[in-house]
Amino acid sequence: MRAIVYTEFGGPKVLQLVEREVPLPQPNEVLVQVHRSGVNPTDWKSRRGSSAKPAFAEITPNQDGAGVITAVGTDVDATRVGERVWIYEAQHNRAYGTAADYLAIDSAHAVALPESASFDLGAALGVPALTAHRCLTIAEDGPSRLTPGALAGKNILIAGGAGAVGHAAIELARWAGARTIATVSSKEKAELAKRAGADLTVNYTKSHAIEKVREFAPVGIDLVVEVSSATNQELNAGVLKNNGAIAIYASGVEPLNLEIRTMMKLNARIQFVYLYSVPDEPKAHAVADVAAALKAGVLRVGEEFGLPLGRFSLEETRAAHRAVEHHFVGKVLIDVVP
């Protein structure tokens, strides 16, 4: 089979296309023929590395993907052969991710993909949708599960509404009954957030941003899904309601200098979100709820739905990683099977 690998940290040039043996599924694993591999910021950041050398002699990147189960290991129901699946956390604490023709993975990480859902959509779930779910369920007075009506009456502010996590957060929050406000930096991104279903879009670079949010939600924002906390500190402090919460799922280059007194007066809760260390129970809830939303037709991809797709072949994985690293607006996919 073909596989993309790297043996040292660095830029996209460390990614190499090689031939490898098709892996055999071990007990509790399934073998998936990968049709799509999704690329996230976490993938290029892992490739660049922060230690002296990679944890494995050879690494195949990318956490997310979608494909078809072609074989199963012992302790896995044989009827799963032929099942279409979406994959999450493929390369977390493992050497092999989805940038290859085949992947052997724990069966729990290969989730049934309905016939109504494309491989494009399946490969776009994983990191973005599960992160969005966790952000939407961290409030102390909020739900631990996302179901229709679970967020009814809540005002949710989603920073970066045109990004992959922001897109999923808009769709999931709307499905759960919330009113959604997406912050963006341009008219083009505002249009994408609207197509995703945002009730209101606000350009956070404008001086009237706080006023616009307050007009829409006079009682204040219950929850902020935050991608750039340092940039948005003033906005968040100006719109958050008393006992409101901020879920921070990404770190920028600027340091976070919280206005402690302001947050204290608001009795604000600030929750950092890192998908890979989310406890087992809430992560299982996230997988189940995303699967339910997928079956309900809530989650969508494509420019017409607010999430443009960047497409690359497996041979173009370097370019795919480079596109995400250079802030491609939308979702980058690798067509392993064209």
Detailed description of the structure:
The protein is α/β, with parallel strands linked by helices. It is about 25% helix and about 25% strand. The chain is built from 10 helices and 15 strands. The strands form 3 sheets. Strands 3, 4, 5, 6, 7, 14 and 15 form a 7-stranded mixed sheet that branches. The longest helix has 16 residues, at about 280-295. The two termini are about 15 Å apart. About 50% of the residues are buried. The mean pLDDT is about 95.
Element layout with pairings:
Elements: E1 2-5, E2 16-19, E3 29-39, H1 41-48, E4 64-72, E5 84-87, E6 102-106, E7 110-112, H2 119-123, H3 126-136, E8 155-159, H4 164-175, E9 179-184, H5 187-196, E10 200-203, H6 209-216, E11 221-226, H7 233-239, E12 240-248, H8 260-265, E13 269-272, H9 280-295, E14 309-313, H10 317-325, E15 331-335
Parallel strand pairs: 8-9, 8-11, 9-10, 11-12, 12-13, 14-15
Antiparallel strand pairs: 1-2, 3-4, 3-6, 3-15, 4-5, 5-7
Helix pairs in contact: 1-10, 3-4, 3-9, 6-7
Beta-strand percentage range = 15-25%
Structural class: alpha/beta
Number of helices: 10
Inertia-based shape: globular
Order of helices and strands: EEEHEEEEHHEHEHEHEHEHEHEHE
Low-confidence stretches: none
Question: Biggest sheet: strands, sense, closure?
Answer: 7 strands, mixed
Structure summary, number of beta strands? 15
Radius of gyration: 20 Å
What is the share of helical residues? 25-40%
